[in-house]
From TrEMBL:
GO biological process terms on file: purine ribonucleoside salvage; xanthine metabolic process; XMP salvage
EC identifiers of the protein: 2.4.2.22
Primary gene name: xpt
Residues annotated for xanthine binding in this entry: L20, N27, K157
Reaction catalysis annotation: XMP + diphosphate = xanthine + 5-phospho-alpha-D-ribose 1-diphosphate
Organism: Aedoeadaptatus coxii
Keyword check for ATP-binding: no
HAMAP family hit by this protein: XPRTase
Name the UniProt record assigns to this protein: Xanthine phosphoribosyltransferase
Lineage of producing organism: Bacteria, Bacillati, Bacillota, Tissierellia, Tissierellales
Length: 195
């Protein structure tokens, strides 16, 4: 069994509403050993493509994204959920993203200066649920005239429609772990084969 599946089984807590909490090692307290494994797996899968930039959304995508960026030796760009005072609205690419876990919509943004039509972008995130965060980033990349090289997800909840939505857009999704079902009552997790 893979390192990530083992940690999910040992430390994961399932909340009502199909939310899996694994913040003891992935997205709040972060285990560098797990990050190193994640980085290597994404690099092995995507290293045959041209990649000029790694993108994610703050905050929980930043840790895996910076690790992957270091391996590819390219910059990591994250979309912010609040407009910094130094960024004028017309100088940013923006997208509306509905947060599944927080049940709020935010306008995510990146400065236009940091994306251009020569970029080939690998999108990285901690979870894939309904595909909102990834679709927001895809829209930003496309608005800049750049190309999405692929989407790397640490934990995909395959019973939610995110992957289907992204694949309909012709995008290549690689998930380290795919979850077929979670049950908050029995605290049971079933994995799905493949990536
Ligand atoms: P999506 O945008 O695909 O609907 O959801 C992905 C985003 O929501 C991720 O960036 C992640 O932060 C958050 N998310 C979705 N499902 C879960 C979950 O089960 N557990 C945690 N911790 N975060 C989730």
């Amino acid at each position: 069994m893979s390192y990530l599946k083992e940690r999910i089984l040992e430390e994961g807590v399932i909340y009502p509403g199909n939310v899996l909490k694994i913040d003891s090692f992935l997205n709040h307290q972060i285990d560098p050993g797990v990050m190193k494994e994640i980085e290597k797996e994404f690099y092995d899968h995507f290293s045959d493509r041209r990649i000029t930039k790694i993108m994610t959304v703050e905050a929980s995508g930043i840790a895996p994204a910076i690790m992957v960026a270091a391996h590819f030796d390219v910059p990591m760009l994250f979309a912010k959920k609040k407009k910094p005072s130094t960024l004028k609205a017309e100088e940013a690419y923006t997208a509306e993203v509905y947060s599944y876990t927080k049940q709020t919509t935010s306008t995510v943004m990146v400065p236009k200066d940091y994306l251009n039509k020569e970029d080939a972008v690998l999108i990285i995130d901690d979870f894939l649920a309904n595909g909102e965060a990834s679709m927001g980033l895809v829209q930003i990349v496309r608005d800049a005239g750049a190309k999405v090289a692929g989407i790397g997800i640490c934990v995909e909840k395959s019973f939610q429609p995110g992957r289907e939505r992204l694949e309909k857009e012709g995008l290549d999704v690689y998930s380290i772990v795919r979850i077929e079902s979670i049950d908050s009552k029995n605290q049971e997790i079933k994995f799905k084969e493949g990536h």
